[in-house]
Amino acid sequence: MPYGNQYFSNLYDLVVCITKAIDLVNPKVTNHHQQVAYLSYNIADAMQLTIEQKRSLVIAALLHDVGAIALQDNLDFNEEEHIELNAHAFLGARLFEESPILDKIANIIKYHHVSWNYGEGKLYHGEIVPMLSHIIHFADRIAILPDRNVYILSQIKTIKEYAKSGMNTSFAPEIVEAFLKICEKEALWLDYIYQPMISMVPNDLSLESIKLTLDEVVGLTKIFSQIIDFRSPFTAMHSAGVAAVGLKLAELSGFSEDECKMMNIAANLHDIGKLAIPREILEKQGKLTAEEYDIIRSHSFYTYRLLKSVKGFETIAQWAAYHHEKLNGSGYPFHLKGNSLSLGARIMAVADIYAAISEDRPYRKGMPKDRAIAVLQGMANNEGISQEICNLLMDNYECIEKARAESAENSAYNYSKIL
Where is each HD-GYP domain found (predicted)? Predict the structure, then answer.
């Protein structure tokens, strides 16, 4: 169906999707963002903040550490605060500050590691620090306290004492006082560890009512693709290249305008599952071990599970996640073949392969035309990828390569600017 200016999806589903993906980077902090969002909401509620403030707070809390994955995978949130924490907060803000959808949360994220310091933390180098940033700062520090090996209700006293000890120095007094009002409630902490925890945020925020048009989803997922790709200089331009190639192939295949936008979204997010893969495997230049190869093959499965939960993404999830499936059934992770792979999935597979072999990486130059075409043709001959789509790419090589190269150049510029 044509979407035009109609709503296509909602902001909440997309934010939760990227939140869950970020949690995959470091299993030690799984659900950290959801827990910070939950605590932040309850503190804001005790402070009687407005619904609009609570809504912005929860979204910012769900995304507050996106900048960390571009710096290092093993950032230890349990350490005392240090300069790297501020660095990832500023990086996260830069990712969102130009977004018409998420620009309001950029400043909240930017200052979420600024200490109160007897009121001096109201400003940071002359800029106003939002109180919502201080709430996330407090909730972030509280969220890392509970010991998973000790029953949560047995830890309330210790958590309270920690909060009191940081009043005025690290944390704003009104935030600590609001927290202490609700800290004794057993339900707060039982909900805190309950799965899925973020569902405990009350419906009065109407987070799912923040609807997005197809164009808005394209713009938002472009930012998400940067979160995915900027994790490593090895992949800093990849999703942008896949999107450029996939979009051209979709247009040449007769896709409608809306379907082309959906292809763009799928390409932006096709590697979101790679956030679950350790950086040392992604950046390994030598041959992968059998176990490492098994690990890397899981990324398209994670892509499917993450995107399938987003309302309106049923088709997009398949196009994005099936990019390593083969027509002969030898691909992964579902071993689909033949008619089980739609035209969109076939386009994505060719776009992913072509972009990967054509783009420059720190350790090698991209393949020239003759070699790239030989690789694609060899895979088509073995019934791995679509001969029809390969022919389409070869017949329109110059315009497709031009689009890929320009997209890669723009992405490289954004990479250097943001990082």
Answer: 7-195, 213-408
